[in-house]
Amino acid sequence: MMAVTLPYPFDYVFMQRALIASVAVGVFAPMIGTFLVQKRMSLIGDGIGHVAFAGVGAGLLAGVWPVWSALVFAVVGALGVEWLRAKRKASGDLALALFFYSGIAAGVVLVSVGGGLNASVLTYLFGQPLLVNRHELQVIVGLGVAIVAVMLVFRRLLFSVVTDEDWSRVVGLPVGFANAVLAVVTACAVVAAMQIVGILLIAAMMVLPVASGQLIGRSFGGTMRWAIAISVGSVIAGLAVSRIWGPAPGGTIVLITAGVFAFVAIVKRGVAPRLPLPVDEPAEQEA
Amino acid sequence: MAEPARVADAPLLEGEGVTFAYGRMRVLEGVDLSIRPGEFVALVGPNGSGKSTLLRVLLGSLQAAAGRVRLFGEAPEHVRDRGRLGYVPQRPVLASEVPATVAEIVATGRLSRRGWWRPLGAADREAVGHALASVGLDGMADRPVNQLSGGQQQRAFIARAFASEPDLLVLDEPIAGVDAESQRRFRDALVHLVEEHGGAVLLVSHELSAVAPDLDRVIVLKRRVLFDGPPARLTDEGVSLGVHRDDLPLWLEGLR
């Protein structure tokens, strides 16, 4: 169907669909993640993923496409976490835990009533980019384009709010609105990424590339660009490894982003500070 | 002395009989004050005199138990054009998980002023450059804020407030721990804002020696307003505007 011919391992149409969907996730997940990390809400993606799982269960039970029901659950859950946090009814941490555990429990109950852990449920839990069909690809890319567009419009406001919320409020920036937008965009990203890396690993794609990016980048924008580059590279490498040797693609992609972080951290913190040491060592031996 | 035309201008910030208590402890009692366009006013008082509480009430983050507050002529929680307000917090708590540069931080000062949805244009970049130069950070625009010294960071936050070219600039203890060179630049920038742009400044500080000759008024607060007038009258009464952690409280005792 596709006009382009790509070399092995991306020679089949299913691999090309996986590639497009995964690269889309590779772009928007760390883009949002940079703001979430700055807001010290790195694990929000995980929490929303658990709420989305309840949505998957509800969808399977009701006979609705689980992506739509997951989207509704995730958006409501994300706004709920943000509302609890903003009203200081609970700390960000506790607000997250409330939704996190209620979500996964509801998911377990709904899935068990709806027929138990079948292949379809496992796809959403662990991700399966190689099985993405044309319609699913359209939804993922459509959500991705919407997410990136919203982030481009809101990036300055979001940067101000996540970096200094108190000051932003005093000078009259719409802090509550900005936080709500970030929550909704995060929910959309979680659901769009669900079929690629799986509910259990979504937060990793939002956070791990940013962890590497903030070690390399010297600005907020620079960190975000590095995070996206690392994430896209990891996604392509992960898919290739999965096709060639057969490990699960979602886990492979995340392990590669973790590997990149380890490498960057060692190079930046380990090797560089050690450079002046040889000068000092002889003196220490004499003493 | 303020010109008659200025006096006729409506106050930018106004408090009438402002009273506030934490539980049963009265912190503010019948505080009256007003800041008009083009005025450079300092608010001083010993520790625990209610300065910070008064600021919070005036800016609308705390509700007065009694009295009336007007910011740009409206109740502070309903002010529509809050972008006219510049603010330098006492100890900004800046999230620094992700490095942000001085220029990125200072540019956020433009958002509330001209609409956060608008892309930053040439005029914005110029205002950011101006603000950086006025606090002596022009060479450090691309440095991550979390790698600067405490004094340099504080200057970055002052630049963020300057970048919005505010009609009213409120600064909460902005020069605590800032070196003499920075204080001089800071003073020049405040005077520039007042004289060139007709902006008003409300400076809450312990340390006024850097700006004493430029002040239009000094307000001394200790739960109530004990003094409100030109600094010359205050010095006549035997108080230096320098480091008065020691002499100001003594003078305040004498007033009671």
What is the strand tally of chain B?
A: 9
Topology order of chain B in helix (H) and strand (E) letters: HEEEHEEHHHHEHEEEHH
CATH class of the domain at 13-204 in chain A: Mainly Alpha
What is the CATH class of chain B?
Alpha Beta
What is the topological layout?
The complex is a heterodimer of chains A (287) and B (256).
Chain A: H1 13-38, H2 44-62, H3 66-86, H4 92-113, H5 119-126, H6 134-163, H7 165-170, H8 175-197, H9 202-216, H10 220-245, H11 249-274, H12 277-286
Helix pairs in contact in A: 1-6, 1-8, 1-9, 1-10, 2-3, 2-4, 2-8, 2-9, 3-4, 3-8, 5-8, 6-8, 9-10, 9-11, 10-11
Chain B: H1 4-8, E1 13-22, E2 25-35, E3 40-44, H2 51-59, E4 66-71, E5 85-88, H3 102-107, H4 111-114, H5 122-134, H6 150-163, E6 168-172, H7 180-197, E7 200-204, E8 217-222, E9 224-229, H8 231-236, H9 247-255
Parallel strand pairs in B: 3-7, 3-8, 5-6, 6-7
Antiparallel strand pairs in B: 1-2, 1-4, 8-9
Descriptive terms for the model:
heterodimer; A: 287 residues; mainly alpha; ABC transporter involved in vitamin B12 uptake, BtuC; disordered C terminus; B: 256 residues; alpha/beta; 6-stranded mixed β-sheet; 9 helices
Overview of this structure, please?
The complex is a heterodimer of chains A (about 290) and B (about 260). Chain A has helices at about 15-40, 45-60, 65-85, 90-115, 120-125, 135-165, 165-170, 175-195, 200-215, 220-245, 250-275, 275-285. Chain A has about 290 residues and is mainly alpha-helical. Chain A has a domain at about 15-205: Orthogonal Bundle (ABC transporter involved in vitamin B12 uptake, BtuC). With about 260 residues, chain B is of the alpha/beta class. Chain B has a 6-stranded mixed beta sheet with strand order 5-6-7-3-8-9, sandwiched between helices. In chain B, helix 5 packs across helix 6 and helix 6 runs parallel beside helix 7 (about 180-195). The longest helix of chain B has 18 residues, at about 180-195. Chain B starts with a helix and ends with a helix. The interface of A and B includes residues 40, 169 and 173 of A.
